[in-house]
Design goal:
Elements (H helix, E strand, L loop, with lengths): L1 H17 E9 L10 E4 L5 E3 L5 E7 L3 E5 L6 E4 L8 E2 L10 E3 L5 E3 L7 E5 L22 E4 L11 E4 L12 E4 L2 E3 L9 E3 L13 E7 L2 H4 L10 E6 L8 E16 L16 E3 L2 E3 L16 E3 L14 E3 L6 H5 L3 E13 L3 E13 L6 E14 L4 E15 L3 E3 L12 H7 L25 E3 L2 E4 L5 H7 L3 E16 L4 E20 L8 E24 L2 E22 L20 E22 L3 E12 L8 E11 L10 E15 L12 E5 L2 E4 L4 E3 L6 E14 L4 E20 L8 E24 L3 E18 L6 E7 L2 E6 L6 E7 L1 E2 L2 E2 L1 E3 L12 E3 L1 E9 L4 E11 L2 E11 L2 E4 H8 L26 E6 L5 E6 L1 H9 L6 E3 L2 E12 L12 E16 L19 E2 L5 E12 L1
Parallel strand pairs: 1-7, 13-17, 20-21, 40-43, 55-61
Antiparallel strand pairs: 1-4, 2-3, 2-5, 5-6, 8-9, 10-16, 11-12, 13-14, 15-27, 16-17, 18-23, 18-62, 19-20, 21-22, 23-24, 24-25, 25-26, 26-30, 28-29, 30-31, 31-32, 32-33, 33-34, 34-35, 35-36, 36-37, 37-41, 38-39, 41-42, 42-43, 43-44, 44-53, 45-46, 46-47, 47-52, 48-49, 50-51, 53-54, 54-59, 55-58, ...
Helix pairs in contact: 4-6, 6-7
Length: 1057
């Protein structure tokens, strides 16, 4: 008995001695700590969860196997050795078997069970290089998603997202944004053709709070969102706390510096003016500063009177300076943009509760003088198990933004006034190449007058076309401010092991204020405009959930309903007739009765829906969904519409045993979704007009609505395959889709004899089909080094099959002589305009007299034809490549994206050429003479072609006259939008855990980065096709005089406590 007792003690002590506390830190490929990772001993329920710093500890015995698992990452198994420190680097999950993704209505599902394509982007990838608008960081990372980014000078401008081509007559491709299950607005209040870009509202979410973004691309994935999911859904999941005692504190700081990287190539040979002859006044050479072009004399160093020599009382008055070029005047006009971001988060929890509280602050000093802004973000997430059966989740997000001096876009400034400053036209088109912009900074003269370079004459120094750019940027700068609140709470009660019920309430609210002004000293009449807009959306949802497994059969899903209410209020007021007091920017200062526009819209959608996923033996899955919406915006007899979907997936690798194939799956789905109209369009009311002698007036609408108008319909099929090889070191995801879009809401012109000019009805049939490819590989993976790459490629074609009855062409927009048109039988988005008249492919020319160089009778000019097809807007394919290399704590990532095909019209090139600013307007012809010289002196631009009778023609065109003739040929300024770009480069380092053992820190990492590192290929020099601002159609077909392209250099620091 005594021996047995001693043996028991010895065995117990031996077991105790062998078992030890294993601990370590868990990080991702970039060295960032991963909280919430499940760590447990294989074959047991014993384990732990990593904290906010990625740290874990678990008692284990040598020889036991630890399993590390986390959603979105590959599961890792490691054997415990005599080393009690096990640090782990987790790679993004490439296997489809154990990976979970967020799907419609925020439901997490095994990706292996899905019958449609979903791609997920880790939130850490969005903050690597400090994008002002985090949506831009999606560039090249998701197959089938086309991203158009703004210039960094736009200080948080709109990022446009298009998923799978064009699926509507209007071209609107705005996807639905959902944050933690809360649908949010992504509206913007921009006029990027002729106004300012105030950015899209989705960027109010703090990017440092984002855990992941899931992109639901097709109707099968988004069918549960009904009418709002037709263009796809962007699901944003924010970070949560962990249910573990203790508090984790994280700090993330980013500093970005923006420098000019891309500009048009300017000529630096000829000065400003309309003629190459220098005029004289009182024996001195004078430049023609009345002109806003650069067809003037050669810059040869002669002493001339410049614009500032005509202002009495100034230091330059009466003086001459050398006539020389300023090659970097445009580059030096832009300032160094600086963006600093600071984020701090506190997270923690207990056995039943977790929380995360964060605050973010961003400050932007814009690259455009007098521009900048501030952002403040706060977020709180709480998850708690109140009882064993009752759970509550709550999320609150608040944002406050203030910006001033947002730059103008398009050919002219806001309100179509030449006095309002748009940087692009001022610097790239209507300027003079010898200008020193630094001399314009001191814009006020001794008598209080505003000095400008573009004077009418030496004796009249008032501005001819352009005010002083610095004066306008400082005194006509707009101001905008926005408050945003996003919140939601849900309660889930487990009725039984099979059934549970969830009730939730969600709200998205914003209040936007925009002020615009024109100062008294400007050419245009003094002016003030204020716009206030509020938006509120509430959703109330009730779901009955079920989840049951019987042997090899699994069944899960839910049925429920939702009530959506939207309310938007707008109030705009603007002065009329000037201001009663100098620069009193207030509606009360209006000389005449101010213009006021006040409106309110309300809309309600009631919905019921349900989904069921049936699985058999973890290899065969059937998905079914159904939704019915009732919209208040449609007629009562047509306001109900039903959208079903069905999908089947089979994980065939479960049926075979292969050392090569790790995972194999095929999938197919069918779905219907649709769209309705804005509220009140069906009502034939009398809109309010102006006030005459105190009596209000009302007008008659010029639009009639089809009484049988109904929701549009999109019907799609999708098939795909997923193949992973060599223990998930190599993988391929291929997807084909075909979507038929019918009965779109369109507006057509009708005869005025009906009493109306427009008719709103259903029409159109657009078929979009495409192929998406996502490829991943881990070519090298050792204990200390790994190389991961992800490549995606997508090809889409959207064809207009039908428009409406006998209408075969439908105009969308017209910009500077270029028409965006839909034509039956053609790809969506045909560009039409004036182009060269040709015979057998040769341009037709004729002799004409020259108005530029007198007596140049041999001048040749091109003949043209109107309404010619000059391009197509949608690209042939898009894609991206992400490389990640990691060595111990060092990580390097290089992100590329590219586009092939599509066309755009360049106003910068068109008017920059016409005004003599660009390098293409100088050079020597085949006679060895300047192309700007007279033809009878051997000069002129070479012209080759044929005469109208087909006989060969060869000669020259006269300087500025030739340039302006070409300006009128819009087809000459259409360019291929293809590009290849190294979008991001990032080098980071994570300090080893052992280095931090005697410090209060659990994590320290830092990184340097470059964004917009290298435009490797573009078919048009000096313009970045990926930064052409989309127009109202959502398509980037018109480069309206854009700003410079910027390269951003960043430094990042992350701390964990």
């Amino acid at each position: 008995m005594r021996n047995k007792f001693l043996l028991t003690i010895i065995l117990t002590l031996t077991s105790y001695m062998i078992q030890a506390q294993v601990k370590g830190t868990i990080k991702d490929e970039s060295g960032e700590a991963i909280p919430g990772v499940s760590v447990f001993i294989k074959g047991t329920t014993k384990g732990a969860v990593s904290n906010a710093a990625g740290e874990y500890s678990v008692d284990a015995t040598e020889g036991e196997i630890l399993i590390f698992s986390f959603i979105g990452y590959q599961t890792i198994e490691l054997t415990v050795s005599d080393n009690n420190q096990i640090d782990v680097v987790m790679h993004e999950a490439q296997t489809e078997l154990s990976e979970f993704v967020v799907t419609a209505l925020g439901v997490e599902r095994k990706k292996a069970s899905l019958s449609y394509a979903v791609q997920e982007v880790d939130g850490g990838k969005l903050t690597q290089t400090g994008e002002q608008n985090y949506l831009g960081a999606l560039s090249g990372k998701v197959a089938g998603v086309q991203i158009t980014n703004p210039s960094s000078a736009s200080i948080g401008g709109t990022v446009n997202i298009r998923i799978r081509g064009a699926n509507s007559i209007s071209g609107n491709a705005q996807p639905l944004f959902v944050v933690d299950g809360i649908p949010i607005s992504n509206d913007n209040f921009s006029n990027t053709y002729n106004g300012r870009d105030y950015g899209n509202l989705a960027q109010d979410i703090n990017s440092n709070d984002i855990e992941s973004i899931s992109v639901l691309k097709g109707p099968a994935a988004s069918a549960l969102y009904g009418i709002r999911g037709k263009n796809g859904v962007i699901l944003i999941t924010t970070k949560k706390g962990t249910k573990k005692k203790g508090i984790g504190i994280e700090y993330n700081g980013q500093l970005s510096i923006d420098k000019v990287a891309i500009l048009p190539e300017y000529q630096n040979q000829y000065a400003g003016g309309y003629s190459q002859e220098l005029n004289q006044l009182d024996g001195e050479y004078i430049l023609d500063y009345h002109a806003d072009e650069s067809w003037g004399p050669e810059m040869d160093g002669r002493q001339v009177r410049h614009w500032d020599s005509w202002y009495p009382g100034t230091s330059e008055y009466g003086k001459t300076r050398a006539l020389v070029a300023n090659p970097d005047n445009v580059k030096n006009f832009y300032e160094t943009g600086i963006t600093q971001t600071h984020n701090i988060a506190i997270s923690g929890g207990s056995e039943n509760t977790s929380y995360r509280l964060s605050y973010g602050y961003t400050e932007i000093d814009g690259a455009i003088p007098f521009s900048g802004g501030k952002k403040n973000n706060a977020s709180l997430n709480i998850n708690s198990n109140i009882t064993d059966k009752l759970r509550v989740n709550a999320s609150v997000k608040y944002a406050h933004n203030e910006f001033e001096g947002r730059p103008g876009f398009g050919y002219t400034g806001s309100f179509d006034s030449w006095s309002l400053i748009n940087v692009g036209p001022n610097l790239n088109m209507w300027t003079q190449r010898q200008l020193d912009y630094n001399r314009l900074k001191d814009y006020r003269g001794p008598n209080g007058e505003i000095k400008t370079w573009n004077i009418i004459s030496p004796t009249n120094t008032s501005p001819n076309f352009w005010d002083n750019i610095y004066f306008m940027l400082e005194n006509a700068k707009p101001f905008d401010e926005r408050d945003r609140f996003i919140g939601g709470t849900s309660l889930t009660y487990d009725i039984s092991e099979v059934f549970s019920v969830t009730g939730s309430a969600k709200i998205d609210f914003y209040d936007q204020k925009i002020n615009n002004r024109i100062p008294e000293e400007a050419q245009a009449q003094a002016f003030f405009k204020q716009t206030n807009r509020t938006g509120k959306e509430t959703n109330y949802e009730l779901l009955l959930n079920f989840d049951k497994t019987i042997n090899k059969l699994s069944l899960n899903g839910f049925v429920g309903g939702n009530i959506l209410k939207q309310k938007y209020i707008g109030l705009t007021g603007s002065t009329s007739g000037g201001l009663t007091a100098t620069n009193w920017f207030n509606l009360e200062a209006s000389v005449d009765r101010p213009f006021v526009d006040n409106w309110e819209t309300n809309k309600e959608i009631k919905s019921i829906y349900g989904t069921a996923s049936i699985g058999y033996n973890n290899f065969l899955y059937l998905d079914l969904t159904a939704r019915n919406d009732w919209s208040s915006a449609l007629p009562a007899n047509n306001n109900s519409y039903f959208y079903p979907s069905a999908g089947l997936s089979m994980v065939f690798s479960e049926l075979i045993s292969s050392k090569i194939l790790s995972h194999g799956k095929i999938r197919a789905s069918y779905a219907q979704v649709g769209n309705d109209i804005d509220p009140y369009l069906i009502l034939n009311t009398y809109p309010p007009g102006g006030v005459y002698n105190g009596t209000p007036s009302f007008g008659v609408r010029d639009r009639i609505v089809d009484p049988n108008i109904k929701a549009s319909l999109a019907e799609a099929i999708e098939v795909g395959a997923e193949l992973n090889f060599f223990n998930n070191r190599l993988g391929l995801d291929v997807n084909y889709y075909r979507q038929i879009n019918e009965d779109d809401i369109i507006e057509i012109n009708i005869s005025g004899v009906t009493g109306y000019n427009r008719f709103l009805t259903n029409g159109g049939k657009i078929i979009s089909e495409g192929l998406e490819l996502a490829f991943f590989a881990t070519p090298i993976e050792t204990k200390n080094f790994s190389w991961d790459l992800n490549f995606n490629l997508a090809k889409n074609k959207s064809t207009v099959e039908h428009i409406y009855e006998d209408i075969t062409a439908y105009p969308i927009l017209s910009r500077r002589g270029v028409d965006l048109v839909l034509e039956e039988g053609s790809e969506w988005g045909v560009l039409r305009g004036r182009d060269f008249k040709t015979i057998d492919g040769q341009p037709v020319v004729r002799k004409s007299g020259s108005w530029y160089h007198a007596n140049d009778e041999d001048n040749l000019e091109y003949l043209t034809e109107d309404n010619q097809v000059i391009g197509h807007v949608l690209p042939d394919f898009t894609g991206g490549l992400v490389n990640t290399l990691s060595y111990k704590g060092i990580n390097l990532s290089l992100n590329f994206d590219f586009q092939k095909g599509g066309n755009f019209h360049s106003v910068t090139k068109m008017y920059g050429f016409g005004a003599g600013q660009l390098a293409e307007t100088v050079g020597l012809n085949d006679n060895g003479q300047s192309v700007r010289d007279r033809i009878d002196n051997g000069g002129g631009f070479p012209v080759e072609g044929v005469y109208a009778d087909g006989s060969p023609a060869s000669g020259y065109a006269s300087g500025r006259q030739h340039a302006w003739n070409l300006v009128g040929v819009t087809g000459n300024w259409i360019y291929d939008a293809s590009y290849i770009k190294l979008r991001e480069v990032r080098l980071g380092y994570q300090l080893p855990t052992k280095t931090l053992e005697n410090t209060p820190f659990t994590n320290i990492s830092f990184a340097v980065s470059v964004r917009n590192a290298w435009l490797i290929h573009s078919n048009v020099k000096g313009i970045d096709p990926s930064e052409i601002t989309p127009d109202a159609s959502g398509v980037a077909f018109h480069e309206g005089g854009g700003m410079a392209g910027f390269r951003s250099y960043g430094f990042n620091l992350k701390l964990g406590l």
